[in-house]
Design brief:
Its cofactor is [4Fe-4S] cluster. The protein contains eight helices and eleven strands. By secondary structure, the chain is an alpha/beta fold. The protein has two domains: 160 residues, TIM Barrel (Alpha-Beta Barrel), CATH 3.20.20; 84 residues, no CATH class. Strand 7, helix 6 and strand 8 form a beta-alpha-beta unit. It starts with a strand and ends with a helix. About 4% of the residues have low confidence. The protein binds iron/sulfur cluster (SF4). Iron/sulfur cluster binds next to loops.
């Protein structure tokens, strides 16, 4: 089976908290975020055999315990993704996915088959702002809402071991996180990501802390300057020592 590949990072210690993983980027995405850092793989073609990708994963398997499928939007390529996830399972690796939630059927099938250990779901903005911000229609918003529900239900019924909801934040849109957090149960991780689009100065850690204070629950704050820091009600809980700039540079060098 062929897969439209966007890239491969053989070893990452920052894409799955507490794990060393490799990252497989699948090419193609149905939305166009203005801040996308993987524009070069939003479209285009680089079709490879899934066996070739599984060989790359196998080569990393001595030093990793899991695989993250990212993109682009990995769930667009349902059949290839499922085949590769099964291949990962066969060699004892955990499987995680970074998704914008646009393809709920893929998530549903993978969760039902027990093929997912982690879903990192990016909720881009509050629901009513999606059409304007991402130029997507209401059908796409409906699909993302469905994915959100599927993941939450699966997490609570223990069919999905790990779930985190990520929100990318920009100046002027700080309150998006507050709206989104209202729909995220307390036992599910919320990640506040510093949005960087090169046009306006990004929010800083202190700004994101204030958003965390408004949400009034534990959040994980990600900035280029400080990496990931867990924060709750005025207290920093854990510090990650690897700055995001290093990760982004490593990906650019791929
Ligand atoms: S969903 Fe992800 S890959 Fe797609 S445009 Fe947005 S940031 Fe880029």
């Amino acid at each position: 089976m062929k897969v439209n590949l966007g890239g491969f990072v053989p070893l990452s210690t920052v894409d799955w908290r507490g794990k060393s993983v490799c990252v497989v980027f699948l090419r193609g995405c149905q939305v166009r975020c203005h801040y996308c850092h993987n524009r070069e793989i939003q479209s285009g073609q680089d079709f490879r055999d899934t066996k070739e990708v599984l060989e790359m994963i196998k080569e990393s398997s001595l030093v990793i315990s899991g695989v993250i499928f990212s993109g682009g939007e990995p769930t667009m390529q349902k059949d290839a993704l499922i085949e590769m996830a099964k291949g990962c399972r066969k060699i004892g690796l955990k499987v995680g996915i970074q998704t914008n939630g646009g393809y709920p059927d893929t998530l549903k099938e993978m969760i039902s088959a027990g093929l997912l250990d982690l879903v990192h779901l990016d909720i881009k903005t509050r629901w009513e702002h999606y059409p304007l911000l991402l130029k997507v229609n209401c059908d796409v918003v409906g699909q993302i809402k469905e994915s959100f529900k599927i993941c939450k239900d699966a997490y609570h019924s223990e069919k999905l071991p790990e779930l985190e909801i990520a929100v990318t934040l920009f100046p002027g849109r700080e309150d998006d996180a507050v709206y989104i957090a209202r729909e995220v149960d307390d036992d599910i991780d919320i990640v506040l990501q510093q949005g960087v689009d090169g046009k306006i100065p990004p929010l800083q850690f202190e700004d994101l802390k204030k958003i965390g204070d408004k949400i009034r629950r534990k959040v994980r704050i990600q900035t280029r300057e400080d990496g990931e820091i867990a924060y709750e009600n005025g207290r920093i809980l854990i510090a990650d020592s690897i700055p995001l700039t290093d990760i982004l540079q490593a990906r650019r060098n791929y």
